[in-house]
Design the sequence.
């Protein structure tokens, strides 16, 4: 149950930006530890901030266990409602201060696609706005928390997500294995179906490959999971199993203990541009709809 208790409407007057920014940080990171680090505050203080917000709105916003943090239904509604509003507020404050020209914040996870370089240059030339790159190791690269205005998102978009998207490109997948590991020893190329018989290491936060991509009844065993790309690399390097990633991402982030194996018949990874479904920044709308720059 999301509901805590009915509270007087006046209690909402106790909610300030500190509560909302703290909540969005936790909603983005799905971790009190990582959110506290991003906000440069202590975890106990952040926990108290979230508890105070829940008491003020009279609803449970997050479910917490020793290993996971998840948004409740009320938490999803609050995040989707306030994230674009705070993003617009921040942009308005910057413009009012006159300290910088209009700015678009472009979020990404492990690697910004090369195709974005030409798009960014064309956009800046056409609008006179600047583009600030924002890296966030979260499923939507900070878009759902208001950390960015447009996000580059790899992989399928979950149904019901409050975003508008456009497919930018598709990237091939590649297998990553530890040097000297028994899996795929001596192989340079392997068929996608063969991976179903091997243990798989999965990045559950920003990864694009999970056992569900294979047919039911013939799927890889889940060897272990990781919460970010760097942990995923180390888990594969430690020999826990085989990893699969978009080829540009894997080749850009090299590791001396890993080697790459080309995949045949692997489904490509869709790469999307995403903006909030409502209250998007006007620059974000223009960036999303901009035609592909001519080469």
Sequence:
């Amino acid at each position: 149950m999301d509901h805590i208790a009915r509270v007087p409407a006046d209690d909402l007057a106790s909610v300030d930006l500190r509560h909302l920014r703290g909540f969005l940080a936790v909603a983005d990171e799905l971790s009190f530890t990582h959110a506290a680090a991003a906000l440069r505050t202590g975890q106990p203080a952040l926990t108290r901030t979230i508890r105070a917000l829940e008491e003020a709105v009279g609803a449970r916003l997050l479910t917490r266990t020793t290993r996971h943090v998840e948004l409740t239904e009320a938490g999803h509604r609050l995040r989707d409602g306030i994230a674009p509003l705070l993003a617009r507020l921040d942009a308005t404050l910057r413009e009012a201060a006159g300290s910088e020209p209009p700015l678009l914040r472009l979020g990404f996870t492990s690697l910004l696609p090369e195709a974005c370089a030409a798009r960014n240059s064309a956009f800046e030339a056409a609008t006179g706005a600047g583009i600030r790159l924002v890296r966030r190791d979260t499923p939507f690269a900070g878009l759902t928390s208001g950390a960015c205005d447009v996000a580059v998102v790899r992989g399928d978009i979950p149904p019901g997500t409050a975003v508008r998207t456009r497919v930018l490109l598709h990237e091939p997948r590649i297998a990553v294995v530890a040097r000297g590991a028994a899996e795929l020893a001596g192989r340079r190329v392997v068929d996608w179906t063969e991976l179903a018989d091997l243990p798989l290491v999965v990045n559950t936060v920003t990864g694009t490959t999970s056992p569900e991509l294979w047919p039911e009844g013939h799927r890889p065993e889940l060897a272990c999971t990781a919460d970010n790309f760097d942990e995923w690399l180390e888990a594969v390097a430690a020999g826990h199993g085989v990893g699969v990633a978009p080829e540009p991402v894997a080749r850009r982030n090299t590791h001396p203990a890993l080697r790459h194996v080309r995949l045949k018949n692997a489904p490509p990874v869709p790469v999307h541009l995403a903006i909030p479904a409502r209250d998007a920044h006007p620059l974000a709308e223009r960036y999303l709809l901009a035609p592909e720059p001519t080469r």
